[in-house]
Structures are given as structure tokens and as C-alpha cells.
Amino acid sequence: MRVLVAEEDTMVRRVLETALTQWGHEVTGCTDGAAALQLLIGALPFDYALLDWGLPECDGPKICRTVRKQSPAQTYLLVLCKPEADQSPLAALEAGADDAFAKPVDADHLQLRLLAGQRVLELRRELAAARDTILAKTQQDPVTGLWNREALIEGMHREMERARREGTPLGFVLLDIDDFRLVNDTLGLQAGDGALRQVGQRLRRSLRPYDLLGRYNGDQFLAVLPGCDGPAAGALAGRLRTSASDQPITLDEGTIRVTLSAGVAAGGGTQERRPADAVVRAAEAALCKAKQPGQQSLALAAKGSWLNIST
Questions:
Q1: By C-alpha distance, which of 262, 234, 257, 236 is closest to 246?
Q2: Is the pLDDT of residue 306 over 70?
Q3: What is the C-alpha to C-alpha distance for residues 92 and 94, in angstroms, rounded to an integer?
Q4: Which of 91, 37, 23 has the alpha carbon at shortest distance from 61?
Q5: Rounded distance, CA 245 to CA 256, Å?
Q6: What is each CA distance from 66 to 70, 101, 166, 303, in whole angstroms?
Q7: What is the mean pLDDT of residues 282-310?
């Protein structure tokens, strides 16, 4: 376990560090509250932190309050108190500490508290893992592994707010697999799911890490592209269509080729007044326009006018 010992008294700190090292812990020590806080909110998390109440610059309870706001359950916080100096263990707990006990510190008592804390940490981590699993299942499309419609809608509204705030464009590309019903009819639904999964993987690989991609509806995928205006989103839509169709899809049931049509729209900027779903509706209308000439088409809409249709 990684343990931080923040104690102003050099002798007490060394005694604690020695005992903790002998018990097999990896120990880091410091003598003031500002340094302790910087370490606790840094990139490398600590499992435990022993914090002297009377640390200079930032006392133990204040550190607890600050850490709890940023990482509520990451580190098990123990505050060392001097009750005769009005340092109440109860006040430390109310500030966010997991445990608090009076000085001088008894080694056996400390080891007991650490073992109890380890059980709490293990339970917290199990709960966090379970929560992440549940969250992933509620946000993930079970067929493609991409975001599902609900998570995608939430994400696109969040990105639209960011685009308004930062004055940047936001592109939307709605992609539809041409004649996908024929795949299900000829090869079966399982093959259809496999095709959707492979198309989704190809699209994801063609996007930037911060672009949003999800299954929007049936055989449709929606990509939300921060920083892309209409022409840029249209160019990316062309690359996405190529990435999905340039190689055949190999399934257990057979090998197929797919093509995609796309509708593109853009919003964002400080003057944007439309909600994100209104821009998506423009992309849907563009997709319908793209589908009219046949397959493998793309339509780009901006401010209600059709800029181009390409095949």
C-alpha cells in the first residue's frame, strides 16, 4: 500500500515511517499541509494518508475537505489529533476523514486501524468496479459496443453546450448502411449483428479519440465531431464511408460488402441557438436527400440549403 505521512514533528514522522515500512508499505513523508495536499491530488494516488491536525499552511481537516471534493473515496484519510489542543476526532470525521485518533500513536493501535481501513478500501474499489460495469452497460450498445442512443444524445447536448461556450463549430454525420435489410434477410439476424459490429469498429478507427460515435437507430450510426464545420464534417463523412466499404466484411455466414450513405449538418459557435437535436434533424433530412439518387451518396446541409450531393 502507498502511504503518505504528513507530520510536522520530525521525530514522530520518522517513527511512523519506520513502522509503516516494516509493515511492508511504500511510504512518502512531508512536513506541511500544502505539500501533503499537492501529493494527495497528484497523478499517483495514495491508499492511506496519515495527517497531523496541526500541519502548517493547511491543517488536517482542511486537507480532508479539499481531497473529498476531488476524489471522494480514493484515499483512506486518518487524522492524528491532540484533544487537549481542541483537536476533536469528531470534527476531523465531519471534515471528511475516514478515521481519527489521539496522539501519541500506539503502533499496535495504528496497525489495527490500517487493517480496518484496508477492508474499507477493498469494498470501495469493488463498489466502484460494479458501478463502472453498470454504467458501461447502460451507455453501451450491446451489438456494436459503441455508445447507445441515450448516451449519444446526452453526449451531443454536452458537446453543443461546449461549442457555444467556446465559439467553435460542431459537426454531425449520420450514416446509414445501404440495403442493410438484405443482409438480415439473406444471411440472418446474427450475421446482421456481426456486420453492424464490424462497420462500427471501422468507423471508430477512422475518428479522433474525442469524437463521439454511437448506434443511433437500427443500421444508422451518428458521429459528433467537435471543431468541424460543415465542409470539414463532409470531408470526414467521405472518409468514414470509404473506411466501411473499401474492404469486404467476413462473417461466419459468408462474405459481404456494404456501402454507406451519409447526411451531414453543422452547428455550434457563440451565435448558435438551435438545440443539438435540431441539428441532428438537419442531418437526418440530409440523409434522406442523399438516399434519393440511390446508394453511396452524401448530402451536406447548412442553414437549410443543400450545398452538394456526391455519389
A1: 257
A2: no
A3: 5
A4: 91
A5: 10
A6: 7, 20, 28, 47
A7: 69
Give 172's strand partners: 224, 265
Q: What angle do CA 285, 201, 231 make, to 5 degrees?
A: 40
> How do beta strands 26-30 and 48-52 pair?
unpaired
The DSSP H or E segment spanning 255 is: strand 254-256
Domains of the chain and CATH, by start: 2-137 (3.40.50.2300), 149-310 (3.30.70.270)
- Are 53 and 92 in contact by the 8 Å Cβ rule? The answer is yes
What digits encode the pLDDT tens for the residues 7-43?
Answer: 999 999 999 999 999 999 999 999 999 999 999 988 7
Would you say the pTM of this structure is higher than 0.70? no
Cβ atoms of residues 6 and 50 within 8 Å: yes
What is the Cα–Cα distance from 54 to 85, expressed in whole angstroms? 10
Give the mean model confidence (pLDDT) for residues 165-194. 90
SS3 89: helix
Q: What is the pLDDT of residue 160?
A: 93
Q: The C-alpha cell of 152 is what? A: 449519444
Please state whether the peptide bond connecting residue 89 to the residue before it is cis, i.e. omega within 30 degrees of 0: no
pLDDT higher than 80, residue 296: no
- Which amino acid type is present at position 75? T
Q: 215-229: per-residue pLDDT in tens?
A: 999 999 999 999 999
Q: How far apart are CA 148 and CA 128, in angstroms?
A: 22
